[in-house]
Specification:
There is one protein chain. The protein contains ten helices and four strands; from the N terminus they run ααβαβαβαβααααα. The protein has about 300 residues and is α+β, with helices and mostly antiparallel strands. It starts with 16 loop residues before the first helix and ends with a helix.
């Protein structure tokens, strides 16, 4: 036995979630400053992303509250009989690009006018069904904005129609505004995610560097790539989840503050209740946080995961 070389057996630890989590938390604590920077940057990124998403959502809500911009209102001649008005409605419904046609009689229009006046509706008390100066109207909804000019032309040249009101200019302006907000949102999203991934990559790299000798030994004794990478991937996931939770509460507070501030000054603006979208916000934050953490971790570990 003395002449035989002594064999060394090295026991390689199997993958353990408990072990990986403990190593991940140790790495976060060991690189506290960079971990804090990663959480702060990712949190800022998520809050901005959530803010822009909520802005777009509220823009859509207020566009719809304007009375559906894809509508045209036509007023019939005041001297028309009931049969003539019905015939005009049928003719409108047969036009191309018309989805729905809703008739509003002059009596209904008067009631709507008084309801919109609110506390000042007494000013219209002198108007009765007998001396009602309003006329019947048709509210037309269309589906293809590209063909609305042709529809508008056909309506203006139809017998029995006195006036045509559309919101093409307003719709175009609001659509341009919405497109601009979406464009800014996309650019902010891209820039902030790149910055966040960069910070997380450097945070994980510090953890990897501090354990580089241990990683080298584990590779030599046959540890799998998953065993080596798991603590660092979990480190990135923890950063993402922690940032997402903090971002959610910060987003909730900021949204509530802005909603209360604007609602008191501009009561005509409507807001989506945060409770209606809170699940989507939290789920989106967690998904983005975890994805960003995983990507940052894998980029940091490329050299050590190569076969």
């Amino acid at each position: 036995d003395h002449g035989r070389p002594r064999r060394r057996y090295v026991q390689v630890r199997r993958f353990s979630l408990k072990y990986a989590l403990s190593q991940a938390f140790q790495g976060l604590w060991r690189n506290g400053v960079m971990s804090f920077a990663s959480i702060a940057v990712l949190m800022s990124c998520l809050v901005v992303i959530g803010g822009f998403a909520l802005i777009v959502l509220n823009i859509n809500l207020n566009l719809n509250s304007l009375g559906n911009l894809n509508q045209i209102v036509v007023f019939v001649n005041e001297d028309m009989t009931e049969e003539d008005i019905v015939a005009v409605g049928e003719k409108i419904a047969s036009l191309d690009n018309v989805d729905t046609v809703e008739r509003i009689t002059k009596d209904e229009a008067l009631r709507q006018l008084k309801a919109q006046a609110g506390d000042k509706q007494d000013a219209y008390d002198y108007i009765t069904d007998e001396n009602n100066p309003l006329v019947d109207e048709f509210v037309i909804s269309y589906s293809d904005p590209a063909k609305v000019v042709d529809l508008d032309y056909a309506l203006k040249h139809m017998d029995g129609i006195a006036k045509v009101n559309n919101r093409l200019d307003l719709a175009s302006q609001l659509e341009s505004f919405r497109s601009g907000v979406l464009m800014i949102f996309v650019w902010f999203l891209a820039v902030l995610i790149i910055v966040t991934v960069f910070i997380i990559v450097n945070t994980i790299k510090l953890s990897v560097y501090s354990r580089r000798h241990e990683i080298t030994v584990m590779r030599y004794v046959g540890a799998t790539g998953m065993f080596i990478a798991a603590p660092f991937i979990l480190e990135g996931i923890i950063i993402g989840i922690f940032s997402a939770i903090l971002s959610y509460f910060l987003e909730w507070y900021a949204y509530y503050y802005v909603e209360q501030k604007i609602s008191s000054d501009l009561q005509m603006i409507s807001f989506v209740g945060f409770s209606e979208v809170s699940g989507y916000v939290l789920g989106g934050f967690i998904a983005l946080g975890i994805l960003t953490g995983i990507v940052g971790s894998l980029l940091s570990l490329r050299k050590y995961l190569k076969a």
